[in-house]
Amino acid sequence: MPVLNHCRNVWANFIGAGGFDTQVLAGLKLISASKGRILCELQVQKQHLNRQGGCHGGLLSTIIDVGGSLAIAAEDMHATGVSTDLNISFVSGAKIGDKLSIDSRCDKIGGTLAYTTVEIKVDDKIVALGRHTKYVRLAHKTNAKTKLAKCSS
Prior knowledge:
It comes from Linnemannia exigua. By secondary structure, this protein is α+β, with helices and mostly antiparallel strands. The chain has helices at residues 2-16, 20-25, 57-73, 137-152, and strands at 29-34, 37-43, 82-90, 99-109, 113-122, 125-135.
């Protein structure tokens, strides 16, 4: 539960910033987390669809981006770095009403880069697979300052 609570705090900061994530992923639910891994869900709604009535690729790309960031947060990181590379394979579609299950893991976190993998499914059907690389050197410095400030208070 501590990892999940930490990730929920990081997600609340993302949403509190009021940017793109807030507009697109306000309904994202963080279900469970363990070190370096987080499971989330999102119900596909009308605003998530493309003009043909399927789940928009931009939404799936955003989920890969955010999922990778939350997997890094699950490594006890407060700041999660900036994207350097995002790769997505769109495998099948999703439609309005579908519940997307998002399984994100941090494959490796080093001093400079973190590598993540995100799998999006509806039931047992893979919708999209993604890889997300993030630059985390400055995030490590921010995290060290955050931990120091918590110890001082």
